[in-house]
Amino acid sequence: MDIILVPGFWLDGSAWDDVVPHLVEAGHTPHPLTLPGMESRDTDRSQVTLADHVAAVVAAIDALPDDAEVALAGHSASGGLVYAASDARPGRVAHVIYVDSGPLASGDALNPDLPAELDEYPLPPWEGMDDASLRDLTESQLQAFRERAVPQPAGTVREPHALSDDRSRYAVPSTVIASEMSAETLRGLMAENHSFVAELARLDDYEIVDLPTGHWPMFTRPADLASAIVGALER
């Protein structure tokens, strides 16, 4: 299967480098994606919008043959991107995988209160992050992450998603790979009708599988992440 791999904030397609060989070994064809504005720290990202990022995922789908089986894997905030791309291309996406992530509803924005004068959103200091997010990252991995991090275009943080084809996107088989929060925690939130998982609860066909680690399993447990992706597609 062709698997389009979409990294979360502050990362380019190389974030998946340690995952890709395991997917290839399992017989899949991975396509790591670098989103607009994330090519380098020197890139002008001041005019990059959320729609540009969704369009990049849609373009990656369109670049594949019409008869290709396509899966989308989105990490963190890119869960909203792969969900929106499945909405934009009904019938083209066989499976959506949310890596420590989930779908975002139409009208949802990650941080609508981010000041309008900001053009970009840099990686915050580690001290400002929860220990659960950073779990299993070594000092050398933290340093490498900091060195490779590219500021996120601010528009992609502030702007709301705009979706249209409810029934088609709800019907796409989906898998949440739960790392920072456990599957049990997520199911508990769903039972409480928590807004954090409201859109996930609307899906017709989904599963939640545990991969306990921090928020970046592609760095901390890449082989296990690949195995979870392969397992999701086999199911």
Secondary structure topology:
Blueprint: E1 2-6, H1 20-25, E2 29-32, H2 50-62, E3 70-75, H3 78-88, E4 93-99, E5 120-121, H4 131-134, H5 139-148, E6 152-153, H6 154-158, H7 166-170, E7 174-178, H8 183-191, H9 198-202, E8 206-210, H10 217-220, H11 222-234
Parallel strand pairs: 1-2, 1-3, 3-4, 4-7, 7-8
Antiparallel strand pairs: 5-6
Helix pairs in contact: 2-3
Written account of the structure:
GO terms for molecular function: catalytic activity. Residues 3-227 form the AB hydrolase-1 domain. InterPro entries: AB_hydrolase_1 (IPR000073), AB_hydrolase_fold (IPR029058), Sec-Metab_Biosynth_Hydrolase (IPR052897). This is Pimeloyl-ACP methyl ester carboxylesterase. With 235 residues, this protein is of the alpha/beta class. The protein is built from eleven helices and eight strands. Helix 2 (50-62) packs across helix 3 (78-88). The protein is globular, with a radius of gyration of 17 Å. The model has no long low-confidence stretch (mean pLDDT 97).
Low-confidence stretches: none
Assembly level: single chain
Radius of gyration: 17 Å
CA distance, first residue to last residue: 13 Å
Helical fraction equals: 25-40%
What percent strand?
Answer: 15-25%
User: What sort of overall outline do the alpha carbons produce when their principal axes are compared?
Assistant: globular
Structural class by helix and strand composition: alpha/beta
What is the arithmetic mean of pLDDT?
A: 97
Q: Major sheet: size, sense and barrel closure?
A: 6 strands, parallel
Count of discrete alpha- or pi-helical segments spanning 4 or more residues = 11
How many beta-strand segments?
8
| Proper CATH architecture | 3-Layer(aba) Sandwich
CATH class designation: Alpha Beta
The named CATH superfamily? Alpha/Beta hydrolase fold, catalytic domain
Sequence of strands across the biggest β-sheet? 2-1-3-4-7-8
Note the run of SSEs as H and E: EHEHEHEEHHEHHEHHEHH
CATH topology name, in short, is Rossmann fold
Count of domain modules = 1
Protein name: Pimeloyl-ACP methyl ester carboxylesterase
GO molecular function: catalytic activity
